UniProtKB/TrEMBL annotation:
SUPFAM superfamilies referenced in this protein's UniProt entry, alphabetically: Homeodomain-like, Tetracyclin repressor-like, C-terminal domain
Pfam families in the record: TetR_C_28 (PF17937), TetR_N (PF00440)
Gene Ontology MF: a single term: DNA-binding transcription factor activity
Listed InterPro entries: Homeodomain-like_sf, HTH-type_TetR-like_transc_reg, HTH_TetR, Tet_transcr_reg_TetR-rel_C_sf, TetR_CgmR_C
Protein name (Swiss-Prot/TrEMBL): TetR/AcrR family transcriptional regulator
UniProt source species: Corynebacterium pollutisoli
Coiled-coil portions: none
HTH tetR-type domain sequence ranges: 3-63
PANTHER family per record: HTH-TYPE TRANSCRIPTIONAL REGULATOR BETI, HTH-TYPE TRANSCRIPTIONAL REGULATOR RUTR
Phylogenetic lineage: Bacteria, Bacillati, Actinomycetota, Actinomycetes, Mycobacteriales
Keyword vocabulary terms for this entry: DNA-binding, Transcription, Transcription regulation
Record keyword Transmembrane helix present: no
DNA-binding region, residue intervals: 26-45
Keyword DNA-binding: yes
Amino acid sequence: MRPSKRDLILAAAVRVIAADGIEGLSFETLADAAGLSKSGIIYHFPSRHDLLLGVHTHLATLWERELEDIAGAPAAELTPTGRLRAVVTSMGRTADLPELLMILDSRHHPEFREAWAGVDKRWMPEPDSTDAYLVQLIAYGLWAHDHVHHAPLDARARERLIAAALERIPS
């Protein structure tokens, strides 16, 4: 199945953000990256706000699909342990820069936050489940590590840390 123009635009937007940050994303840079006219972009995303909301929603949807692929089922069909195992496995990888930038950007606008909140609500433990929440915080640390630390984790260290986090998931 051929991707829709909207999906092509969103994929191009992610590439622009990876190369130039959110500030580098404009209708002009996006039109060049997507191989479309500026008016073609505006047809699908009439404002920069609509475009950014589209990118947030697109990335959150991709992440939820990844979680479902890892877990083998949607969140509603899994135990809390099964959901947290998928989260740790997913977040054990290094964050893609566009994901990280968009997550940080989502803190500044309620609609952007909402794009991610549904995934969090379906997959993440509540803070009052202390042991499970600590494991989630370990996963966040693994995910962001290479962007905030002076030396990236090597593959063996990352695998050991993921395994250690998985062992700490309460049953």
